[in-house]
Amino acid sequence: MRAVANDEKSEFDALAFFCLLPSLLYVLCMFVYPFLYGVYLSLQPQKVGGFSLANYLTFFSDPYQYGTIWITFSLAIPTTIVVLLLALWLAYGMRRGIFMERTVTTILIMPISLGVILLSEGILGFYGSQGWFNQVLLGLGLIKEPFILTHNYAGVMLALFMQQFPFCFLMLLGYISGIDPSLERSARMLGATPSIVFRRVMLPLIASNLLESIHLLSNAVSALAAQCLAGAEPNVTRLSEALARNPILVTALNPVIGYERAAAIAKRAYAEGRPVFEVALEMSGLGADELRRLLDPAALTRGGLHGGGGQS
Q1: Sign of torsion, CA 57 59 65 67?
Q2: 148-167 as b/e, with b when 16 or more CB fall inside 10 Å?
Q3: Among 48, 66, 182, 295, which residue's CB has the most CB atoms within a 10 Å radius?
Q4: Which of 47-51, 244-248, 306-310 has the highest mean pLDDT?
Q5: Residue 198 is assigned to a structural domain of this protein
């Protein structure tokens, strides 16, 4: 009997290995190999023969690059913690319903429907130095100088929070509301305090659902990639038309004609639904060839200033 059991276990291990083999190969080819190849290239600088840490030493000794790492983490970590804790607190408190639940939920998730541009404009209009927030505080005499809450660290944190909070809140609210209430009642009947119920019952279930959602999202992304690789082609004409009307193109004109004139061109192009090039040709005073050079999207993706001296 013991020999039979060992044979069955061996056959099961072999079957499990062969079932996992395609996934392992996929991970090795799509993630492990590119990562290791990138490390290999980073250890072979162009101007140094053989393996060297020159690239890493240059990167970490450059104050600008070193500063970008600190800025990235100083923005990402606090924002993530604040969003997660606040969303978890609100979702947990609303799991069994509250007064005017639909209204409160609509207000909390409203930034999703606004889009990045309207959200940014709202932040500038409300929290700017001339915004409602500062004007109310100044009017009440609570402050003498307006708070600087935009175009700085606080402004970026605020924008990131408003973009990420609705998604995190909706996801957690759905998961927590779907947990069987009898589990909480059973724990309380056995003498568990509210804090123990949260830590020992609710939190593990929430974590499990979050991991499941990540798995489902990865499957959806892989399905989308498979469809694109199967032959889906972008509509180049529509993409080109949308890009030509994108007001962001006028940023290339700022060094040449000044911020105010460039902003006026962007506003008119957006209001009339016309390409930025056409409106700029009418309002900027620049020639067609110069505008084509300045407004070339491919050139803009390479960075740098493509214009000359600015005008006011």
Answers
A1: negative
A2: ebbeeeebebbbbbbbbbbe
A3: 295
A4: 244-248
A5: no
